[in-house]
Amino acid sequence: MKKEKIQEKERSYVSSSLFIYTDESQHLVEKIQGNDFATSISAAIFSDFIENPEHFLKNITHVVVSSVLDDVKQILNLAMQHKFSVGLIPLESQKKLIKSLELNTDADKAIEQALRQDPPLMDLIICNGTILLSRASIGRIPLLDESSDLGFFDFFTKAINKFKGMKLLKFSFTTANDKKIITAASGCMILQHSKDSLAARLISSDNSVRDGSISLIISSPFSIIDYLKFLIQAWRRSSSQKKLPAGIGYIKSNKILIESGTELSVFIDGNNETHTPVQCETIKDAIRINIGDWLVKESENATIAKERIRTDNLPDQLELVKSVDKKIPFFSYASEERFRDLFKSLRDDAKINSTYIVLMLLSTSLAAFGLYLNSAAVIIGAMLLAPLMSPIVSISMGLLRHDNTLFKDSAKKIVLGIGLALSTSMVIALMFPHKPVTPEMLGRLNPTLLDLAVAILSGIAAAYSKSFKEVIQSLAGVAIAVALVPPLAVAGIGLGQADLGFFLQAFLLFFTNLIGIILAATITFRILGYSSVLRNKRGFIFVALSLFAVSIPLYLSYERIVDTLVHQKKMEKERFLINDKYIIIKNVKITYYQNKNIIDMDILTRDQLTRFDMDKLKNKIQSRFGKKIFIRTRVINIL
Amino acid sequence: MKKLFNIILLVFSLSLFLGCDKPPVTKSGLKVKVGVIAPLSGERSVMGKGALKGIKIAREINSLLDNGDEIIFVVQDDEGKSTKAISALDHLVNKEKVSAILLLSGSDSTIAVAKVANKYKTPILATLATNPETIKHSQYVSQLAFDDATQALVAALFVRDELFIKKVAIFNNPDSVYSSYLAAEFKRQFELLGGEITDFINLQEEGPTDFEKLITEVERKEPELLYLPVNAKATLAIANELNSYSWSPMAMVTDGMLSNVIEAHNGDLSLINGMLATDLYSNDMELSGYGEKMLEYIRNSDLDVTTHMLTGIEGYGLLINAINHCEAPYSRVCIQQEIRSPDGFMGISGNIIIDAKGKADHTLFINTIEDGEMIIRVKVN
């Protein structure tokens, strides 16, 4: 709709113009001279014009040019000197120029555009004396210089090819306000006004031909993981997104000096024009030139941009030493300085304090009472109160970064927590003469591979939540999911009841959770870039071996659980005819305790069941199980 | 390295050896004669032929006893008639000197045989007859299947306590002992459970029946379920009538019905879709090792699995199992005792125990018929 309105606007055209052409555009001479806009055209060959421009420019205020890019740039230089306005009729091969200035490819339309009166003002960027019309690139800027309308397959094929052998180099960027940014980058790119590249897409809302500024995009993929993240973000990016992808920096200033550790070629509008150091400067409102309607509209609203530096995503001075001139690692290196808050929080979490002790005592007591009461709500309350997750997350980071202090502090805190939990629940168990084994307790005596899966996912979630302040509140959910304190409380109750099997089975669940979380959180921190290498390999191997060792009983109990579920499902469909008494079985629950199958079920019947009937029923059910069974029933009479 | 390889090889070989089935039995040259009485012609030939097919399949898989003695069959056709069945019994015992008899006839013939069986002192295993009277006349006759008292009782309890149905209409073939017993027993049990029988309809064997009129009359009393212990022809006629009606009550048929429809009437199976069926088997039942072996053979032979066939297989299996527990020359007394062994025999899906009176404790399935298959609704042990 808007576009139509622009076209509807009444246009006026220059009364006279000079058309400069070369052999490639000679065919246009006749066409432009016979234009429909009553513009009188005089024509000159480019070489003649350059020899003596003053001769041709007498009484000429508008020049139309159709030639190669270098020639166009010379004309623009003269336009700045002699203050004439310019119209461009692009050659078919000048695709980037066409896109950049929104020129027409059709000859008639291009002539119409080129002859418009009162062309708008446009800034020019000059880099080491060379005019930059579209964009300049230095070093390797994977995909940023590619067309924004690349297909999915091409996009990822090019992404992989461009990444091969890429290294980060030392760069420094000095702005007009003398701000110097030193970083490591694979390359950078200056944009005049280009909408046809992925880089332009990243800053599309912040770029105009008349904002008096240079837009510089810096590419610094810290790691392959970062690069993949960038690719996904770039591929999906919409103009509404404000945040730059990881490993991408952005500077906007009217003057930028770019220096690199080693001399690098500078490609301006696709040509190798100069090398680093390169200074680029904007000349505000340097020329009047006929450009596309949308660019005109943008330029009319443009204001002079303030200097802006967004380099948070780039390596800083301390990280520079680690990353420069090295192959890009799979995972990023992240310094403590960069994640100061996180590391401070992890260190705090690893310290033993009175709050921790009080919360451990309270949560374990609550869990123990909840278990005796068979109350899921009370147990969930205890989970939320339990402070055990924090030191476990801290120990994972200590393991990853071989931070002995963090590791030891966290380990001490965890051991203390376990000790407190076991002793508290043991005391509670000893205090009560009645020792019921509730379903909530039984539910924590049969850990399986599924529990390990929950622990692993919780470990990932815990490390992820801890890494991002915005989602830190999710840790409560993680605590509920993995439930560290209730199994410890059950283990403590087992100790209190002097039942070693009870203790060991419940402790196995806790240990499964502990190992699963540590391992998963360590790997998650690694993927999130908190260490480029796993430094405490020995520690990690120990945890991994523990996980393997734990997996064996878990696998066996998983098999048993599957078997139990199959039996449960089958039994739900089974009926028994015992001495002509029809027995309906409902709500079958099979649990495994101390090498025995315990079957809890409802029996629905019309008849009174005798001991003889019950024995016969038990024998029939027993024939389905290898192991000895114990049946607990609730008889419901059908009336 | 070589040592390690040898150890692995040894362990592997041992595991293979230990994992193998027992070595194949070789023929001893001795033969054990077993008689078979079946309706191979006449109206009931479907069940006789089906069960005999099952026996042949089971024998093809295992024709030898554990000691290598071979089982051979002497088959007699009773044409579905009681008198012929008695003659066949006499011939098999006195002329052929068989060690045991598999009786594949219906309840009528089986009861007739039972009435004279004591005279012949030969163990008889009735594979298809489900009438409780079958075992009342002779200590030598045993049933393989659950009896009709059990079938009617379970059906009534299921309908009343699990489907929560109060009103049922019953259809009966008065000329059939099987049908009459089931219809009457279901009525008795259902009424004892507080249910109401809205109609008890005796279908005439001779002459045409106006099913349209019949169903219209039955509908008026609004039964929620039709109990149909009737033959396949009547079941299909009722199903066909209901199909053209807007009224669609639940319907329950009895054991072997689906097999009869498939084998004898080649009927439109969609007509009986959704009907409940009490049966000895189900298409999705859990199979024992014996059942797996038999059904694999049947599937590989591209045969349809039917209830009749499976009773033949189980009957053969149970009898062989009993003979295997006896020593040559396999006295009839020993075989008789072993048929009724309290250890039972692991049949197609579960253990079959025949008690001292000859009554079988056989799993009963209540299935739903879906696209020509019986899908378990409940399994009664």
Task: Please render the helix and strand layout as text.
The complex is a heterodimer of chains A (639) and B (381).
Chain A: H1 2-8, E1 16-21, H2 28-33, E2 40-45, H3 46-51, H4 53-56, E3 62-66, H5 69-82, E4 85-88, H6 95-101, H7 107-114, E5 121-127, E6 130-132, E7 135-139, H8 152-163, E8 169-175, E9 180-185, E10 187-191, H9 198-202, E11 214-219, H10 224-236, E12 248-253, E13 255-260, E14 265-268, E15 271-275, E16 278-288, H11 293-301, E17 308-310, H12 317-323, H13 340-350, H14 354-373, H15 376-385, H16 389-401, H17 404-431, H18 439-442, H19 449-467, H20 475-482, H21 485-496, H22 500-527, H23 537-572, E18 574-578, E19 581-593, E20 596-605, H24 611-622, E21 629-637
Parallel strand pairs in A: 1-2, 1-3, 3-4, 20-21
Antiparallel strand pairs in A: 5-6, 5-16, 7-10, 7-14, 8-9, 8-13, 10-11, 11-12, 12-17, 13-16, 14-15, 18-19, 19-20
Helix pairs in contact in A: 13-16, 13-17, 14-15, 14-17, 14-21, 16-17, 16-22, 17-21, 19-20, 19-22, 19-23, 21-22, 22-23
Chain B: H1 2-19, E1 31-38, H2 45-61, E2 70-77, H3 82-95, E3 100-103, H4 107-120, E4 124-126, E5 141-143, H5 148-162, E6 167-172, H6 177-192, E7 196-202, H7 211-220, E8 225-228, H8 232-243, E9 250-253, H9 257-265, E10 276-279, H10 289-300, H11 307-324, H12 332-339, E11 345-346, E12 351-354, E13 360-361, E14 364-370, E15 373-380
Parallel strand pairs in B: 1-2, 1-3, 3-4, 4-5, 6-7, 6-8, 8-9, 9-10
Antiparallel strand pairs in B: 10-14, 11-12, 12-13, 14-15
Helix pairs in contact in B: 2-11, 3-4, 5-6, 11-12
Description:
The complex is a heterodimer of chains A (639) and B (381). With 639 residues, chain A is of the alpha+beta class. Chain A folds into four domains: 2-119, 3-Layer(aba) Sandwich (Rossmann fold); 130-323, Sandwich (Tumour Suppressor Smad4), CATH 2.60.200.40; 340-557, no CATH class; 574-637. Helices cover 47% and strands 21% of the residues of chain A. Chain A has a seven-stranded antiparallel sheet, with no helix packed on it. Chain A has a six-stranded antiparallel sheet with strand order 6-5-16-13-8-9. In chain A, strands 2-1-3-4 form a four-stranded parallel sheet, sandwiched between helices. The longest helix of chain A has 36 residues, at 537-572. The termini of chain A are far apart. Mean pLDDT of chain A is 82; it is low at 1-6. Chain B is α/β, with parallel strands linked by helices and 381 residues long. Chain B has twelve helices and 15 strands. Chain B has helices at 2-19, 45-61, 82-95, 107-120, 148-162, 177-192, 211-220, 232-243, 257-265, 289-300, 307-324, 332-339; strands at 31-38, 70-77, 100-103, 124-126, 141-143, 167-172, 196-202, 225-228, 250-253, 276-279, 345-346, 351-354, 360-361, 364-370, 373-380. In chain B, the strands form three sheets. Chain B has a seven-stranded mixed sheet with strand order 7-6-8-9-10-14-15, covered by helices on one side. In chain B, strands 2-1-3-4-5 form a five-stranded parallel sheet, sandwiched between helices. The A-B interface holds A 570, 573-577, 580, 582, 584, 604, 606, 620, 623, 638 and B 150, 153-154, 157-158, 161-162, 193, 286, 351, 364, 376-381.
